[in-house]
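agent> fetching stored inputs for the tryptophan docking request
agent> found them:
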Amino acid sequence: MTERRRVFSGAQPTGEPHIGNLIGALNNWVAMQDDYDTVYCVVDLHAMTVPYVPSELEKERRQLAKMVLSVGVDPSRSLFYYQSDVPQHVELAWVLTTLAGVGQLERMTQYKEKSDRTGQSFGLLAYPVLMAADILVHKAHAVPVGDDQTQHLELTRDLAERFNSRYGELFPIPERITPEIGARVMSLTEPTSKMSKSDPSPRSRILLTDDDDQIVAKVRAAVTDTGAEVAYDWTAKPGISNLLEIYSFFTGRPIPDLIAEHRDGGYGAFKEAVAQAVAEGIRPIRKAYEALSDEEVAQVMSVGAERGRELAEGTMMTVREAVGLS
Ligand code: AMP
Ligand code: TRP
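agent> prediction call returned; pasting tokens
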């Protein structure tokens, strides 16, 4: 039997997960369970790189873990744990910092954006190195993420190559996996910026815990473009194009079909159809989320942590040997 290729991904417990997270990343986390050996983390150490309240982090970690399970990550098929429960991530991150260039880190778009908002910190600068360690400590071949992680993945690949050429071939060079449609879901209120957990407007995003009424209200209020024709054109009609991508995701139907059906029906009717599709798609997720208890989640995470430490320690033993620490 050939060994299955390994997948790793993580999501930060900062703010509530939205349909951008689902369409861009979580949906692939679930889908890849069929063909890959999958490892997923709630990356709580990453959430510490911006100012936060400890009691909130504790709650958000648990809520995100519950949501990941609710969208269909199955602990009998995937390894799933809290990043901070497996200290080998941090140990490998240290090794990788010695290979990372400060200039390259300073050029990261997310670093620039976040440090403008919350101030510079060494943790924020080192953030992508820890992300590289998350991926490499599991020797992952593929990483399902949204489009906003492209630069971080490039850095991961650079660090893996640098390690391999300096200390011997140890790490596969991981590949980024993004969906063809929906790798960058845009804000409902400002369709030229991405949908984001940190956007001050709650109407800019649909949460995976929103009920039908909230979803309908948010889609109805979504900013659309001038004109009346439903068309897929990111330059002239970013608002409608974004809704078309969301609609396509939740119905599984290709965009040209959706346009053919709605082209001349007006924005109002189109938005109603989108809202219904999103509400239907979110309902089972919300139900699963409400049905899961905190105790069940804690149990899954504790079993995952133990196995995570075993696997990550396997990699670290070879890393320590390669770099002269054994
Ligand atoms: P985060 O919540 O920032 O940890 O993101 C979790 C995952 O969701 C990452 O793979 C992101 O790339 C992805 N993601 C976040 N926002 C969006 C968005 N607006 N569209 C598509 N993917 C996204
Ligand atoms: N930086 C990612 C984000 O903001 C989260 C993350 C941390 C991650 N470690 C990772 C994603 C490893 C993929 C693989 O969404």
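agent> quick read of the result: The chain has a mean pLDDT of 97.
agent> awaiting further instructions
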